[in-house]
Each structure stands twice: as C-alpha cells, then as structure tokens.
TrEMBL record:
Record's protein name: 5'(3')-deoxyribonucleotidase
Single annotated GO MF: 5'-nucleotidase activity
Any GO BP annotation: pyrimidine deoxyribonucleotide catabolic process
Active site: residue positions: 8 (nucleophile), 10 (proton donor)
Protein family (similarity comment): Belongs to the 5'(3')-deoxyribonucleotidase family.
Annotated Pfam families: NT5C
Organism domain of life: Bacteria
InterPro entries, A to Z: 5'(3')-deoxyribonucleotidase, HAD-like_sf, HAD_sf
Length: 171
C-alpha cells in the first residue's frame, strides 16, 4: 500500500514570509529583515499581521517556495499526497488556496486538498510542516520545513529540511 504524505501549504509550498515582507513594505515603505524574525511567530514578527492575513488576495498571490512545484510533483508520482492546511481561521483563504493550488500545482486534484481548523485528526505516514504544533501530535515520520519561526525547535524525532531538493533526496 502506498504511503500517505501530508504536505502543509503555508511555509512549505507557499512563501508566506516573503508575502508578508512584501505587504509590510507596501503599507509602510519599510523592508523587514527575515533574519530578525528567527524564533518569532509570524503574528509577532509582522506589525500588520492581522490586517494583511485577512486581506483579500493575500493567499491567492503568495509566491511559491523555490523548487516546490517539481518537488510536489515528484512526491505526487511516488506517494499518496494530501495537501493539508489549517485554513478555516481565515475564511477568505479557502477559495484563494484552492485556486492557488490549481494554478501552480494542477496535478493535485481537489480530492487531495484538506482545509481544516486543526491538523490533529488528519492521519498519514509522513508529515511535512513548518509548525512544531502540527508535528507534535503526529504519529508518523515528522519532517520540519525550516522557516524563521522554527529555527530553534529541534526535536530528536523530527528530520529538518531546508528546501524541496532535500525532500526529494530523502523521500
């Protein structure tokens, strides 16, 4: 039986940090340095987080993480892939996320997309996520995708990766 791989969207496929940096610059003219955000959640790192994340188009126009299209295609050809995103907190994100996936990852079927409130009831063999809170409950293989907010989280049972080329190498 084919292994099931759960892939997070924000911070794994979608470069939300770059999107926040771009939006903060549009609002304030100040370009925030990503290195100053190490160990800080996005909601604390970006002064206008709430208004930006709830704005129309935020999720629809987010850039892709480098090599994620090729990497996800590779996984999709080899495993049973589910895209799992904690999206219901931001209701405008639901359609935007589905449309964004359809544009950049057309090989992912709507049947492979799970938009939820929490990921603790979603089961699989491997989870790729950038938030420790999602990996903490997971019973399978845990892969943490490096983002500024998680650089100081190092759990022995997690495998840390810094990009999609590493995912292809290990899976």
């Amino acid at each position: 039986m084919q292994q099931q791989v759960l892939v997070d969207m924000d911070g794994v496929l979608a470069d939300v940090y770059q999107q926040f940096i771009n939006k903060e610059f549009e609002l304030t003219g100040e370009y925030l340095d990503i290195k100053s955000m190490h160990g800080i959640l996005e909601s604390e790192a970006f002064p206008h987080f709430e208004s930006i994340v709830r704005s129309e188009g935020f999720f629809r126009t987010v850039p892709q993480i480098p090599d994620s299209i090729e990497g996800l295609k590779y996984l999709n050809d080899k495993y049973k892939v589910l895209i799992v995103s904690s999206a219901t907190e931001f209701p405008t994100s639901l359609k935007e996320k589905v449309d964004w996936l359809g544009e950049f990852y057309p090989f992912i079927s709507w049947r492979q997309i799970i938009l939820c409130g929490q990921k603790d009831s979603i089961k699989g063999d491997i989870m790729i996520d950038d938030h420790p809170k999602n990996l903490n409950f997971f019973d399978g293989k845990k892969i943490i995708f490096t983002q500024p907010h998680n650089v100081f989280h190092n759990e022995p049972e997690w495998q840390r990766i810094d990009g999609w080329k590493q995912i292809i190498d290990i899976l």
